Amino acid sequence: MWFSVGIDLGTSFSSAAVGGPGGTRMVPLSPSMVVPSVACPGPNGSVLTGLDALQAATDPASLARGFKRRLGDPSRLVLGGASFSPAALMAAQLRDVLAAVNRHQGGVPTSIVLTCPAIWGPYRREHFAEVPKLAGVKSYRLVTEPEAAATHYSNERRLGEGEVVAVYDLGGGTFDTTILRVRGGRMEILGTPEGIEHMGGVDFDETLLANIDERLDGAITELDEEDPEHATALAKIRAMVVKAKEDLSIEPDVTLSVPLPSGPRELTISRLEFNDMIRPSVELTAETLQRTVTNAGLQPNDLSGILLAGGSSRIPLVPQLISKEFGRPVRVSLHPKFTVALGAASIAARMASEPPRASGTGPMPVPPAAQHAPAPGGAAPAGVPATAAFGQPANGVGEPKRRGTRIALVAAAVVAVVALVTTVVLLSRSPDGDNEAAGASGGTVSAGASTEAERVADETRAPLPSSAAAPGSAGADMKPGSAPSNSPGPLKVFDGAAVSPWAGFIGSLETNWSGTDLTNGTVRDGSLTARVDDQGVHASWNGSGPAQLYFQSSPDASKARDLSRYFSSDGAITFDVAVHKRPTKVTSLELHCVHPCRSTVSIDKVLKRLDTGKKTTVTIPLSCFTRKQEYDWNPKRVNTAWLVYTEGALSATFSDIRWEAEAGGSQDAVSCDDLL
Q1: Domain-by-domain residue ranges, the chain?
Q2: Peptide bond into 501 cis (omega under 30)
Q3: Lowest mean pLDDT among 124-133, 293-302, 421-430, 635-644
Q4: Domain spanning 491-675: CATH superfamily
Q5: Dihedral sign, CA of 319, 324, 326, 329?
Q6: What is the pLDDT of residues 154-171, one digit of tens each?
Q7: b vs e for 100-127, b when ≥16 Cβ sit within 10 Å of the residue's Cβ?
Q8: Counting C-beta atoms within 10 Å of the first and last residue's C-beta, which end of the chain has fewer, N or C?
Q9: If you compute the radius of gyration of the chain from its CA atoms, what whole number of angstroms results?
């Protein structure tokens, strides 16, 4: 008997379901149905995934987790001495899941549906197209996770023609909201899906871990990941934290025995305490859902119900808060981890009974949706709200009138005739630099798709290369490592005080993302406290949410600085730092060139290696930033010359911040490989 398959490659877990004449059902990929989304090197250059990877990875450093979040990041993951792209690891997971399905069913599927977050734009979907290609899957359809979840919901509770539901999908790594209406027996998207790219169970794990670390006086932060004993202890602690989070969904409190190398330490965490830790993040998801409803031209009362999908929606605080905020029926399936796969299997089964596409192969793309600006290393800060269509800030959050830098970005624009306009775009870049903003509501849609849940957008066009140098521009004919004879002098950013035109600010998502002026004395903005004195800027992040310390000239494009000569002269950003408390989460050093463009590197590994309390000069080559550029990075329009961002805890004093030509190749410069 024929069957079709739906596969959900999640950040934390992957699942599969089959559909056919007898309905849909999950495929038992493991005793718990789902398999962890992990990978490690196998014999002869192979890649092991899931339970096989967990059993084979004797060294914690060789086990990759959460690589779905890294999709599109040019940096490769180094595991056990071998390097892999995120797409290659996801392809290995897809290959193994399909193999398990084929073994269980005793044959191959008639049709395949894969899923992706609704907030992924053309760039991420283009990279995702490499995943099935590398796995040897030639024909498939790609649908968004909320569409798949709503399809399964419709199968469980038949919806009438015209009924409208909201899908609230909180998974391991991303959060999506989508409004769907039943039309002709299928799901039609209303408005523009929104979400928060780095919001989910993984982030809740980190929040809980940071709280435990604080209660243990930083004992976890002090662990050295390069020490085998410490790395093993850290892996055990992380696994313990994940289980504690899950147990708190059914137990009022949990007692933990933290396995530190110096000896176990015990502590108790209650569900109420955990709720307080994650409440700001869950409230942000509610705000995002409200914007999604509003952007669809609706009110909460217009909704028949709100469907909760994704494993993290099982946290009791989630349905409680969403029900209170919206006053609509909130429905959680018995196994929310299965919802997306089951819905995808239903769509796949329907495909098998419909006429095939003309081409017969390749992906069926999904509707255009908002893409959000990634955070350091391709990750967006947990809790950064989505932006409205056409790149305008939503709900007052985004590029501030005067300052504020890290924002979410609507980016689903496509270029109608690439061959005609590529040269024009590269040589005559718009002063706003928002090349992807318009597609949120105006992407190309295939004929006849407007009434289908799988209505398609033409996303075959590749994004324009932002790093291409125009003929005659600075660096266009430069050889790598060469320096022009007219190298610029040092550019001071902070030297006891901010050096004009730069001004200092701190910003916290918790209270004021638009930024608070950094003046002499102590200032506080939510999770970040800073003090300027004769030693420099003493900044302390308490780990309760995203926050940043930065020096900016102006958000106004007309006041941006052309700093391209520092890049073409092998320059570097140099600053002195004394670390008082090492970072507990990924910490980035960023350059911004007027919203939405920026470039980032991760400096937490560098800061963790420094002697606590000792002032050290850190030199970051500008060439490392060109490897991590995002959203049309343009060194000719720099408006933020130095920014440190983290979502975790960190305490350090920064001083003598400057740009220096020809310093990128110095003996003391940090290797770009240490900034991944």
Answers
A1: 491-675
A2: yes
A3: 421-430
A4: Galactose-binding lectin (2.60.120.430)
A5: positive
A6: 776 666 778 898 999 898
A7: bbeeebeeebbbbbbbbbbbbbbbbbbb
A8: N
A9: 25
Cα dist from 454 to 5, 141, 241, whole Å: 16, 9, 38
Q: How far apart are the first and last CA of the chain?
A: 48
Sequence-distant (6+) residues with CB within 8 A of 276 are none
| Cα–Cα dist 640/592, whole Å | 5
Q: How is residue 151 annotated by DSSP? A: H
Q: Are strands 4-9 and 13-20 parallel, antiparallel or unpaired?
A: antiparallel
Residue 373 region by backbone torsions, left for phi larger than 0, else alpha for psi between -120 and 50, else beta: beta
* Confidence at 644, pLDDT banded by 50, 70, 90: very high
3-state SS assignment for residue 29: coil
Q: pLDDT tens-digit profile of 440-478?
A: 333 322 223 333 333 222 222 223 233 333 333 333 333
Cis ω for the linkage preceding 400 (within 30 of 0):
no
Q: How far is CA 338 from the centre of its chain?
A: 22
The predicted structure's pLDDT at residue 276: 93
Cα dist. 350→19, 159, 274 in Å?
Answer: 9, 17, 42
The neighbouring-strand residues paired with 13 are 36
Pairing verdict, β 38-41 and 47-49: antiparallel
* Sheet strands (E) in 401-546: 491-494, 503-508, 512-517, 521-525, 528-533, 536-542
Q: How buried is residue 638: exposed, middle or buried, by Cβ count under 10 Å (0-12/13-18/19+)?
A: buried
Phi then psi for residue 635, to 5 deg, are -65, -5
Looking at the DSSP bridge assignments, the partners of residue 578 are 653
Buried b (16+ CB within 10 A) or exposed e, 374-398: bbbbbbbbbbbbbbbbebebbeebb
Q: Look at residue 189 in the predicted model and tell me its pLDDT.
A: 83
pLDDT digits (tens, 9 = 90+) for 28-46: 999 888 999 999 998 888 8
What crossing angle do the helices spanning 317-326 and 271-295 adopt, rounded to 10°?
A: 40
Q: Are 439 and 411 in contact (CB under 8 A)?
A: yes
Task: Say how far apart CA 314 and CA 507 lie, in whole Å.
Answer: 32
Report the range of poorest mean pLDDT among 10-19, 280-289, 622-631: 622-631
Identify the CA nearest to 47 among candidates 62, 60, 36, 35: 62
Whole-structure pTM value: 0.51
Phi–psi pair at 24, nearest 5 degrees: -115, 150
Instruction: Give the C-alpha separation, 249 to 252, whole Å.
Output: 8
What tokens were used for 234?
A: 């850290």
Q: Rounded to whole angstroms, how far apart are CA atoms 463 and 414? A: 8
What's the DSSP call for residue 62? Answer: G
Alpha-helical segments (H) within 579-675 = 604-609, 622-626
Handedness of CA 301, 304, 310, 315 (dihedral sign): positive
- 3-state class of 280 per DSSP? helix
d(CA 676, CA 667): 20
Per DSSP, the residues of 436-461 read TTTHHHH--B-TT-TTSTT--B---S
